[in-house]
Amino acid sequence: MDELLLTLPIIQPEAVAPAAPAKARKPDWLRVKLPVGPAYANVRRLVDEHKLHTICESGNCPNMGECWGAGTATFMILGNVCTRSCSFCAVATGRPNEYDLDEPRRVAEAIQLMGVKHAVLTSVNRDELKDRGASVWYETVVQTKQLSPTTTIETLIPDVKANWAALETMIAGGQEVVSHNMETVGSLYRLVRPQAKYDRSLEQIRRTKEAGKRTKSGIMLGLGEKQDEMYKAMDDLVANGLDILTLGQYLQPTKRHIEVSEFIHPDLFAHYKEEGLRRGLKYVESGPLVRSSYHAERHVNVPI
Fold it and tell me: Residue 200 pLDDT more than 60?
């Protein structure tokens, strides 16, 4: 999937401000500005001209105005129809018919034309493809590096369903960061990610780390997770070699998707950041409006 690119004191759990009720109005800390300005308009024009997909649009990202307005970008490759039916995701589900072997060239040229310093690449799940789309992943990274050798790249890759040969191809193009989102805690996987497995995603992160990559993942809060489950998820991620973790508030994209269980207070996000660092993560981006690619350009400097 093409998307555009686009912190607080230790608080004891019992002292953390309570979460707002799910049915309440969105709290003030979740308000964002509408996307405006010439930089935003320029990115919109280039995306339309090059017929690119962005997760910013497909995923209804609340940071689209900030990121597009800054002229930074995350691109979604392999179409905009996903073979999975996760209960949180706004991306269309179905049988994809788009498989464009020329897409790596178009994405690479768009990144060069935009003068992007740091690009994030992501994609839908393509479970129907034997290689899960790995060859397109590889070529997109390689061709981007050829045209823009100073551009750093993060790839936010899907679950390969234990196709480890596909994983090796996906992460071999020379990207600086490889991300795979856990999305939620283990107890909620059947509800939130019914076609994924908690332990399999952990193994994918572990294998990525063993390949020498800078590893990253993301978890949404407000789906009904408990604090002790969040601590366990952090410990599991550290044990499997994770370097960077992003934590953000889940927002229900449509009435057809899973409801928000609670709006998490910024103080609790601050607490989770401190807990993650204390438990061994090297970098934690934590806040209500944080999404996978938020401040992604900072993550390439995390030591591995």
Answer: yes
The answer to whether 148 is a known ligand-binding residue is no
Question: Is 179 annotated as belonging to a binding site?
Answer: no
pLDDT in tens, 97-129: 878 899 999 999 988 988 888 899 999 999 999
Report the range of poorest mean pLDDT among 39-43, 90-94, 259-263: 39-43
User: Is 261 marked within a binding site?
Assistant: no
Percent of the chain surpassing pLDDT 70? 80
3-state secondary structure the chain: CECCCCCCCCCCHHHCCCCEECCCCCCHHHCCCCCCCHHHHHHHHHHHHCCCECHHHHCCCCCHHHHHHCCCEEEEECCCEECCCCCCCCCEECCCCCCCCCHHHHHHHHHHHHCCCEEEEEECCCCCCCCCCHHHHHHHHHHHHHHCCCCEEEEECCCCCCCHHHHHHHCCCCCCEEECCCECCHHHHHHHCCCCCHHHHHHHHHHHHHCCCEEEEEEEECCCCCHHHHHHHHHHHHHCCCCEEEEEECCCCCCCCCCCCEECCHHHHHHHHHHHHHCCCCEEEECCCCCCCCCHHHHHHCCC
Report whether 58 belongs to an annotated binding site. Answer: no
Is residue 87 part of an annotated ligand binding site?
Answer: no
